[in-house]
Amino acid sequence: MNASLTIDLAEVDLVEQDHVEYIIQQADAITESTNKSIAASLRENKRKEDALKAIVEGTAGKTGAEFYRTCTKYLAEIFEVRYTFLTKLLDQSFHKSQMISLWTGGELIEPYEMELAGTPCLATYQNSWGIFHENLQAHFPTATALASLQGESYISVVIRDFEGKIIGNLGVIDTKPLPADTSALQFILQLFANRIAAEMKRQDDEDKIRENNRNLEIINQELLHATRRKNEFLATMSHELRTPLNAILGMSEALEDEVFGDLNERQIKSLRTIRRSSRHLLSLINDVLDVSKIEADKLDLEIVTTAVQDLCGSSLIFVKQQAFEKQIKLDVQLPPAVGNIAVDERRMRQVLINLLSNAVKFTPAGGQVILSVVRQEKEDSEDGSSWIEFKVTDTGIGISAADQDKLFQPFVQLDSNLNRQYAGTGLGLTLVKQIVELHGGHVQLQSEVQQGSCFTVHLPHTCLLADQETCSFSIFDTLTSHPQISNQQVTVSPLILLAEDNEANVSTFSSYLTAKGYQIVVAENGHKAIDITHKERPDLILMDIQMPHVDGIQAIRTIRQNPGLVGIPIIALTALAMAGDRERCLAAGANDYLTKPVKLKQLNQKIQEWLNLN
């Protein structure tokens, strides 16, 4: 019994031992499988980490084609495949795409266009994903490129922009089958695709900006060319318009002064009408040129010390007759010891004359126009700043609030109907605004319809001077007197060379200057002016700048090259009146410069000044 029992127990031990061994084997198998799964998972994670690292580090600082090439190269290394590619869709109908980067295991192929029909790329575009584990060429027998690559497997993903539109695809082609589980590959491809989409968007934006900049540069060049042509046109038109105006004004001035004989009252009245109309035309030409200069940044201010009292008085002179004819009362309100300011005197006078002329023009007969000045010093000012204001107030027709913003726009007139009552170009207030702003100031308007208007020119402390003493000479003394220029200093008959090609101007200048006691010799061009100067040695030369064959600038330079002719005064005469003309004339050797139309009395005064100095 006992022996038999012992045997049975041994058998039981053997059975249990086999069972334990079986369990151990199963556990080892499970452990091995788990380890393999963990290893595979670690490898996938490693691939993902490498992909992330490649995107973050490997492509850092790279853009455009370099970025795309780097991505395809890193994908090939991460996937351990033969080929990686990146294409950009050329049309939304999926007919063509551009291969922008193709890695072939050791080199990058230059970009080229490809037809999508019969290719796995088309399948990708149509399905968002393209996955072919093996037998790739059997699926696409007409794709000859796959045969040349010996492609066996393929996986790619579409690239979408931020709006969801397909813009390209990214994938790999290998010469061996893909693993059954491609989830890790798909994850990494999608990761790269998203980053490539961002780069494509950045590059597209950059291309658009570059294209816009190119277009802007072209537009700027065209604008510069147009501005240059406009300035050339204005210079030419200035000359063409000023030249006949010079003859009209000169002849009418000479006739009115009765240089050629006595005139009756009707003739004098007609001449005054001619002169007044010519002066008005000249002012319109000057306005157009001034606006052009300011727009082209060619208007330079000549800042000088100016007495406020004289500035106001000389401005009032220009509108005095106009106001008298309409029986409009002109008043000026200046504080005591208003002092001096630092401004471009001619331009600021132009501002005040424009404002005063408009006030008189738009004020009915019997009304009133007031020019007042307010000067505020820093210690008396609430905001701690110094300034000076010129105000022109009228009792005229006023301006509606809706129209006030239009006033300072060039070539805009509120009274633009065919039955216009008021003449003008609409440039006056544009010039006022621009000239004041060049001085660092601004213009304000307060107005009501039928209640009058008040224009205020506000100049900053930079225009103020500490000296409060007024000039000893007051322009108000000249409001009722017009001293004539004395001709007594010219006691002999000096010889004047007139270099001028325009017959009307030759006739005007010659007749007037001959009547004033000068001897005149005429040269029709610069070449003759040079010859006559060498032969005749004139006492003074009046040199027109724009002449045929040899222009006035070159003629002046040539004359100045002769040491014996250096002392002859040369007064340059030009109808161009554009920026830099005066400087060019003086640099060439001219002693003085006058812009046509030239007042004959002013010309006579200049001639006397230089003859006396000489």
Describe the 3D structure.
By secondary structure, this protein is an alpha/beta fold. Helix content is 49%, strand content 19%. Strands 1, 2, 3, 4, 5, 6 and 7 form a seven-stranded antiparallel sheet that branches. α1 runs antiparallel to α2 and α7 crosses α11.
Pick out its properties.
single chain, 614 residues, alpha/beta, Beta-Lactamase, Heat Shock Protein 90, 4 domains, 7-stranded antiparallel beta sheet, 5-stranded mixed beta sheet, 49% helix, elongated, disordered N terminus
Mean pLDDT: 79
Percent of sequence in beta strands: 15-25%
Low-confidence stretches: 1-7, 416-425, 468-491
Task: Tally the structural domains.
Answer: 4
Reconstruct the topology from this structure.
Blueprint: H1 2-58, H2 64-79, E1 83-89, E2 96-103, E3 108-109, E4 112-115, H3 120-127, E5 129-132, H4 136-139, H5 144-149, E6 153-160, E7 166-174, H6 183-256, H7 265-295, E8 303-307, H8 308-325, E9 329-333, E10 340-344, H9 345-361, E11 368-376, E12 387-394, H10 401-404, H11 428-438, E13 442-448, E14 452-460, E15 495-499, H12 503-515, E16 519-523, H13 526-536, E17 540-544, H14 552-560, E18 570-574, H15 581-588, E19 592-595, H16 600-613
Parallel strand pairs: 9-11, 15-16, 15-17, 17-18, 18-19
Antiparallel strand pairs: 1-2, 1-7, 2-3, 2-4, 5-6, 6-7, 8-10, 11-12, 12-14, 13-14
Helix pairs in contact: 1-2, 1-6, 2-6, 6-7, 6-12, 7-11, 8-9, 9-11, 13-14
